[in-house]
Structure formats: structure tokens, C-alpha cells
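In the previous chapter we treated chains in isolation. Here, by contrast, the input contains two separate entities that must be folded as one system, with a combined length of 943 residues.
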Amino acid sequence: MKKWIISLIVTLLISGVQAQIKVTGSVKDQKGRILAGANIVVKGSYDGTVSDSTGSFSFKTYEKGKQFIVASSIGNKTVEQEVNIDSLPIRIDFLLKEEISELKAVTVTAGSFEAGDKKRAATVLSSLDVYTTGGANADISAVVKTLPGAQQVGEQEGLFVRGGAGYEAKQFIDGTLVNNPFFASVPDIASRGRFAPALFKGTVFSTGGYSALYGQALSSALIMESIDIPDRSEVSASISSVFLGAGLQKVAKNKKSSWGGNYGYTNLLPYFSIVKQKPDYFRMPEFHTADLNFRMKTKNGGMIKYYGTFGASDLGLRRANIDEPNLKNAFGLNNINVYNNLSWRENLGNGWKMNLGLGYSTDYNDIEQQIQNQQNQKITTGQPWIDNNNFTIKTRSDLSQIKAVFDKRLSGISVLRTGGEYMYFYNSSTFNNQKATLPDHFKALFTEADLYITNDLAAKVGVRFEHSSLINKANIAPRLSLAYKTGKGAQMSIAYGEFYQKPENNFLYTTTNFGYAKATHFIANYIKNTALQTFRVEAFYKKYDELVKTHPVLNNAGAGDAKGVELFWRDKKTIKGLDYWVSYSYLDTKRDFLNYPKQLQPTFAANHTASFVMKRFISKINTGFNFTYSYATGRPYYNLVQSGAQYTIADQGKTIDYHNLGFSFNYLTSLGKAYAVFVGSVTNVLNSKQIFGYNYSNNGQRKEAITPPAPQFFFLGVFLSWGVDRRQDAINNNL
Amino acid sequence: MKQIIIILSMFITGHLTAQTRYEAGMQKGLEQFSAAKTAEDMAAASAFFERIADAEKDKWLPYYYAAYANHLTGWMNPKADKDKVAEKSKDLLSKAEVLERNADTYCMRQMIAIQQLTVDGMTRYQTYGAIAAQAIEDAKKADANNPRIYLVEAQYMINVPTAFGGGKAVAKKLVEKSLELYDTYKPASAFHPIWGKDQATKLLAACQ
């Protein structure tokens, strides 16, 4: 009994001696901002608390003597403060330094829009958006046209960005240039892009101020990053109103490698026999497309990817000759295109990374145009402006390239990127049996640094050096951009850059006595992002120098400028289940180039362009409905007539405004063991009259509107896939 | 004699304290966790578990509960920035994973991924759906008899459209399997995860 009392007293004494000491204080960051939810703890004990919404904290501890009080908050550097806990209350005010991290750091957004699944400020579209944009028919360029900066040009392929011509925008896959990103060109009709959107996990649409890694594009770069190893093996098939396709993708069991291929056959005969086209197609458009891919993870976490495509197309169409409406221009085209891309990214250790790209592509065109009479027989009239339309042309365009980029991690998350590329362009053209060739050894060196000064301030500084053996000239192009975080999810960026581009081949065949055309970009942008909403405004000024002139002589005497403001708003929040975006571009541009007698607004530039894209997926019926409405004010057109050495404007005007409402639906279901997606789509639902410009007869008496080959395009198809190790099977097998 | 008793009792008390500090802490933490009514209470419970974990250094359970409690704040507060909550949950969970990877840590991975997926399901399905599926696969490899695997899978599947291989019927099968396993499931210790049976019972009702 006595013993018990003693031990009880002793126990009580021990506890009694350990009087609790109160610890209070506050937690703020360097800028004096309150840090709520920070953890405060007496190191090595369980005593502590969490800072409240005013950043204050208070707790009691039994710990005694020399101790460390630790304050930590995610995204900040942890601070330890030594204290001597005796009998007096303790007060500590913590100041935590911000940690520079990729998640929190500001990203340079001036000039660029990202589509992909990365969570970055510039990301405005997901990969899925490319498929679910109404009326875009899963064409990447068509989706990009709903973003600010791009024009609604319907008579030629290409992206016409901020007053730039289509050839001023270039496309890159895994870092290397794509020489022929679109199907072969047909007069007055825009061709589709060659690459299926499913191949890419991320796309960056840059409307200016882009990185020193990319060159030879005055206006825009569309930078696409191909997918890595897919999640699962899959067999796919598709049947639609215009094509048939089949594909296979095999993923190795250890998920370290995969290979696959697709084949598609398109024939427009059935479609054109139902939906009347304005031109008379004497060779029905027919396309064979095939692709192969191989992807492999390397030992050190790197990746090797091969992607190759083959395309063959054939078509022929007749339209009335503009000078003699009884006669016809019959245009026939046969094209073969092969594209190969091998890329290797590897961690070299010590903060070094390597990106290596190898590419080879070749493109053959065999074009014949004839003047035909009513009986579709080839004739000559003796009038040169008509007979000029009797020609054959065979072209070949090869590009072999190698590009290496090395990344070195500097302190924190800053990165230095440096590398070079070598491209060998070989072009040949045989015009009416007269052959000319254009070989060009093109070299570039570049270096660029992403500098993160704080989480709120980042800079990208770069410079690019280029040399073309064909024109035997070099250039040095500096690039600079800065981004500053102005608040939660909000940031401002500015960018400056010089861009050079060698003249197009059709001018170089005549003379190589050219310099580079030059564009200087100035961009300021503001972006505010939350997970479900994006607001973006951007203003730019672009100065063009050394543009190609064709009259009075071929030289670089052209110049011009472009300025404008662009808005973008995407919202998935306000109305539940509804996702929409609005973009608006104001453009003011003039240029003196080619045969323009003075600075004029080019025919591919509208002053106001806007798009409204809306999507809704209704889970109950497993169907998504997508609408896209695009609008542009009229574009100018000119009839430029030669008088002496100069051209004069014989006639000019503006086309009617452009309206296009596109619609598509996708219905998800299963057919037998296959997942099936039914897709239907219509362009120009409202059947608005669309005029892209005018062609003039030689004497200027007749002018003819350039319109789409048919006012609307209808599409209906079903896409099937059989996943070899589908989740559904996995569930059933486990139950 | 007295001195011996004092020394002895001090020794015993000291020894007992050392042995039970962790257990008492976990006990208190679990009580705080069960009693939490608001996101703030839950955050406080998470912070308490984190303090235990940081002090003990070699125990995965307190980090696991810290991650779980933090994860739940993302659901309890409808205005929470789920991405931010998930970053913190992942940070805590990865500390648990350094010490031990098991079916329950993989289930937590899945739950965190699903929380991020719900921010924008249509867009994030491909990324976070894949992470979640991988986590379930890993969990089954670790211990196919853990009932929470089928519970968390069912919680996700009930919200996946039938066309994508989800729906009530699929969820029902899973939750039935989960409940069956709960009948025989024995946690490895008093502090090992035991939660989920109530949720499974409720979910089964929702699957009807």
C-alpha cells in the first residue's frame, strides 16, 4: 500500500514538474503574406499546431531545455528556430522563404497557346479538344484556327497568323521541321493536315516570340510533341462516308516498348455522287495513307521514338477558264509523300539531358494542267494568257535533317539549352520538261536559358545563328521574353524576337540573289488561369523587313507591319457540363511585297476575326454535342495589272463577311466487344455564302468569286477499338 | 528503500512513456480524426499525424493517416483547390511510401488521382484515369484481399459512363466483393487501416 502511494506520488511529481509552456507566434512569407495551414512543431515531439487563417498559432508543450521549433508550409523552405524552453511563454514569428518549383513558377506565355495535358499557364486546349471541336473534322489546323491570331482563310492550306502568309508558319514534330505538313495543294481549295491528332500529347501554337530552338518561320510555329508509350494494346477500325481505316497498336507486357501502324483509304466518289461539287472531278480524289510507329524506353528513363508516314493521293478537276468561259482548265495532281522522324531523349546524368532528332522526308508532285474544250480535249488557242495554262510540272522536295539539343539544369529549376541543327534541302522542279534544282545546306546553332529568378519572375533569353548555303547568307536572331506573376493564377509576359526566313522556292528557282526576309515581334500578354477558366489578352506589334518583291525586280525591297489585340476566354465553370471558349482578334496590317505597287492590306488578312466554340457532353445519353461559330470581316482583294515595270491596282474591293457554323456530335457506345464512337459533323450548317476572294480575267472584264468546292461538308463515321487488355476484362477476371 | 522505489518507479514510468508515446499519439490522432466535423478539424488531425510521423521517422501509418485526413479536406470543403490539396496529400503519401508500399498506400494513390480527375473529368480522364488504374493494379498485386481496393475502385466506377466500362452494375460487383472481404479482413495492428465498411454498405445501396 505504502509503495503504491509512493509510486503514485512520484508519478504525479514527474508530471507536475513538467508544467506546460505556451508557444505562440505567426507565420508569414518573405513578402509579408500570411501563411495559413503551416505546420509548427517542437522537433522530435508530437507537440505543435497549425497556423490559422490569420497566420497565428498557439500551442502548449511539455518539452524542456534546448529545443528546435520547426515551421513548414508546402511550397516554402522549412525554418528551424532554436529556443530554450524554461518557464516563460515563448513567441516566435516565422518568415518562410518561397521555394522555386516548377508547379508554382511562372511560365512564359507571351505568344503561345498550348494544347495538351500538362498543367501550365499556356495550356488552353486538351488533346481531346482537337476531336471534339464542332466542324473541325479532327484537323489540328482547323482547331488552331479557333484560337486568336489565326485567320479564317479557306482558299489555301496553312496558318495565316497576325498578318503573315501561310508559308510564314511552320510545323515541328518532336523538335524537327516538317517540310510538307499538308496534303498536296490544289488551286483555290484548302488541303487538310497530314497528321492525326491522336499522335500528339501536346501541341503549342505560337503566334510569335517563340524559342530560339525554332527558326525559318516569320509568323508562327506549331510545335507538336508525339505521344510516348500508350496505356494499352489496341486494334482499331473506322468506316465513314469518305474513308476506311484500320490500325494496330501493340504494347509490350512490361510497358517498356510499343509498336503499331495504321492504314487508311479515302475515296470521295460515293460522297461526291450524293453531294454535288462545283468543280467537275474527272479523277476522283483518292488517298492512301499509312503510318508506322515504334517507341521504346531506355535504361536511364529516356525514350526513343520512330514515326513514319506514307501518303499517296490522286485527283483531277475541271473548272471554267476565266478568260474563255467555253473552255475549261483541267488540273490533275498525283502526289507521293514519305515522312520519317526518329527522336531520342535521354538523361545523361549530372543535370544533363539530350534531345536528338533525325528526319527524312520526300515529296513528289506530278501536276498536269490543260486547256480543254467542251469535249474535254486539250487545245491551244494562240492567246498566250490562256495557253500559259497548258503545262506539266513535276516537283521533288527532300529534307534530311539532324537536330541535337542539350539541356543543363542550372541552380533551382533554371535550365540552359543549347544545340544545333543541320538540314539538307533538295528541291527539283521540271516545268514543261525544263529541270531546275535547288540544293541547300542549312545550318543553325542556338542557345537559350530559362531563368527562374523567383517563383514570380522568369526570363527566357536566347539567340539563334543560321546559315543557308543556297543564298550564302547568315543571320543572328536574338529572342527574349519575361514573365511576371501578378497574383494567384495571374501573370504578365512580354516578348521580343527577331525572325528570319529564306524566300520560297518558286522565287529561288529564278535567282538565289536574295537575303532573308525578317520579322521583329513585340508582344505583351496578360493571362489569368484557374482549373476551369482561362482569360487571356495579348497585344502585339510586328515589323516586316526585307520581304520578297517580284516587281520591278526580284529582291528583298518589301516591308510592312502588323499590330493588333487578341482576347481569349474559356469557361467550363459557369454552366455545369457546358464548356465554351471565345476568341477575338483585331488585326491592322499592311505590307508591300510581291507585285504590290505600295503597302496594302494583304488578301489573307481580315481586320476582325472571332470564334465561339461550345461543347456539351450529356452523360445520360453518352453523347457529346459540339458547335463552332467562326466569323471574320471581309478581306481585301485586288486586280493588279502590269503597266510598264510597275503594277497598278485596276480594281479592288472587300469580300463579304465570313460566317461558318460547324456542328458535330459523338456518341459513345459499345458494339459487341468493341468500344464504338459514332461521329457526325456538318460544316457551314446555316449555308452561309462564303467568298474567299476573286480571280480576274486577263483583260480585267470578268471577275469570279473564289468559293469552297461545295457550300457544306457532311461527315458520318464510326470508329471502333478493341483494347486487348481493357479495364473491363481486368475487372471481370478479378471477380 | 524509498529511493529504490522512486528510482524504480521513475524508470518504469519513463519506460512506459517511451513505449506508449506513439500508441497514445496514434490513439489521440484517430480520435481527433473520427471526431472531425469540418475541413479545419480534419486539417488539424492531418497536421497532428504529420507531427507524429516526423517525430517517429520510421512509421508509415502516421504519414498514411496524415495523407488520408488531408485528402478528405478536399471533399469536406467544397471550395477547396483540389489540385493544391492533392499536392500536399501526395507529398505526405510519398513519405509513407518510402517506408512501406502496400495495398493501402496504392489505394490512397488512386483516391488522390481521382480527386484531381474530378476537377475536369472530360479533359483529365486520360492522365489521371491512367494513374488511378495503375494504382489499383499495383494494389491488387500487393494484397488482392484488401477490401478497400474494390471499394475505391467502385467509388470511381459508379461515376464512369457505361460506354467507358463503368456504371452501377460494374460498381455493384466490386462493392459486393469488397463487403465480402471486409467480413474476413483483419488489420495487422490496432492502428492499421480498418475504414471503409460503412462507405461500402452505403455505396451498395447507391448501386441498386
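The radius of gyration of chain B is 20 Å. The first helix of chain B runs from residue 2 to 35. Compare these points with the single-chain example from earlier in the chapter.
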